[in-house]
Amino acid sequence: PAGRVSARFGVKYSILLSVPFHIIFFFLLFSLEFYHMPLVLLAITKGLAAGFFWVGRHTFMAQKTDHAKRGMELGRNKIIKKILSFPGPLVGGFILTLFNINIVLIFVFIFLVLSVIPIFFIKEKHEPVDLSVKHIFRGLNWREKTILITRGADDAMNDFVWPVFAFFTILNQYFILGIVKFIEKVFLMISDYLSGRAFDKRGSAVIKYGGFFSIFLWIGRTVVRTNLGVYVIDSFGGLIKPFIATGIDAECFELANSEDKVLHFIIAREILIHIGRVVLFGILYFVVDLKLMFLFGLVYSLVYIFVKFDGNRGKDAENIECVNFTN
After folding, report:
1. Phi then psi for 124, rounded to 5 degrees?
2. Element (DSSP H or E) covering residue 56
3. Closest Cα partner for 154 from 240, 54, 82, 83?
4. Which of 25, 111, 200, 256 is the most buried (most CB within 10 A)?
5. How buried is 305 (Cβ within 10 angstroms: 0-12 exposed, 13-18 middle, 19+ buried)?
6. Handedness of CA 116, 121, 122, 123 (dihedral sign)
C-alpha cells in the first residue's frame, strides 16, 4: 500500500498516512488495560504505520541527498532527529516511575498530532511512477539482499533483545533504563557526524569498520553484570552502530539512484529488512536464554565485515524514476 500511495500521489501523502495509523496503534495499546483484543490488531496497525512512513521517508531522502555529500547529509538528518527526541528516554522513564504507561501514551498522542503540521510544508512536485511488483527485487544481487536482511535482524537485536535482557537481568528500573538510552543518544549523535564524514571519504568500508567493532560490542554484552557496565557498553554501542546504519543507508540511496528505480528499490529495501526482523523474532520464540541470541549478533558482525555492499555498481542514471521536490 505504501508503495502504491507514493507512486500515485507522492511520498508526502505516504508519510502523512502513517500518522493516523500510529495514532490508532497507540490508542489500541492504551485500551489494552480496559479491553481484551487480539494483539494481531496492534501488529497490523503498527506495520501499516511503519510501512507508510519509512517508504515515504527513504524515497524522499534518496532523492534529496547529494551524491558527493550523502554521508554528511544523512548524518545531519539523524542528528536533528535525535536532538528533537533527546528528552524522550529521560522524560519517559521519569513518567513511568511516577505514573504508568497510559500517561506516556497520552503524551505520544499529543506529539503525533503535532507532527502532522510540518508535513504540509513539504513542497512536492510529483510525477506518477509506474510501479511494477515483479520488478521490485530486480537489480539486487545476493550480497545486497544478505546485508539488508542482516540489517533488519541486527536492528531487532539492538532495539529489542538487548534492551529487554539488560532491563530484566541488570537494570530493573525504568528511570535507569531512560538514563542509559539518554547517554547512548549522546554517543549516537557524535558517531552520526563521524560516520557521515567517514562514508563520504571511505564509502562502504565504514560498514566493515562498524562490523569489526560490533564483535567486541556483543562480547561485552555477554559479560556485563552491573549498571555501570551497561552504561559503558551502550555508550560504546552508540559509537559503533551509526557506522553500520549510515553506511548501509547511504549505499542504499546510491544504488537506488544508479539502478534508475528509486521507489522500487526502497520498497525492496524495506521488505528485506523486515524479513530479517521476522526471522529473528521467529528464532527468538524457540530460545529460552536470551543470552544465546547474542551469538547471532556476532554472526551479523561477520556478515558486515565479509559481505560487500557497493551502491556505486549500477549504471549512470539516465531516466531516473523519481519524485521531484522543490526547495
Report:
1. -120, 125
2. helix 39-64
3. 240
4. 256
5. middle
6. positive
- Residue 34 grid cell: 480496559
Residue 173, H or E segment: none
pTM of the full structure: 0.82
- Whose CA is closest to 244, among 202, 208, 200, 194? 208
Query: What phi, psi does 23 have (nearest 5°)?
Result: -65, -45
Measure CA of the first residue to CA of the last residue in the chain; give whole Å.
Answer: 27
User: Cβ(26)–Cβ(112) under 8 Å?
Assistant: yes
Biggest alpha carbon–alpha carbon distance for the chain: 58
List the beta bridge partners of residue 277: none
Q: Cell triple for residue 56?
A: 515515504
Cα separation, 117 vs 91, whole angstroms: 23
Question: C-alpha grid cell for residue 101?
Answer: 504507561
Q: Considering only CA atoms, which of 177, 148, 173, 155 is closest in space to residue 271?
A: 148
Q: Is 237 exposed, middle or buried (0-12, 13-18, 19+ CB in 10 A)?
A: buried
Cell numbers found for residue 300: 551479523
Beta carbons within 8 Å of 100's beta carbon, 6+ residues apart? none
pLDDT digits (tens, 9 = 90+) for 15-63: 888 888 988 888 887 788 777 878 888 889 989 998 998 888 888 888 8
Place of cell 569489526: 212
Q: What is the pLDDT of residues 312-326, one digit of tens each?
A: 544 443 333 333 333
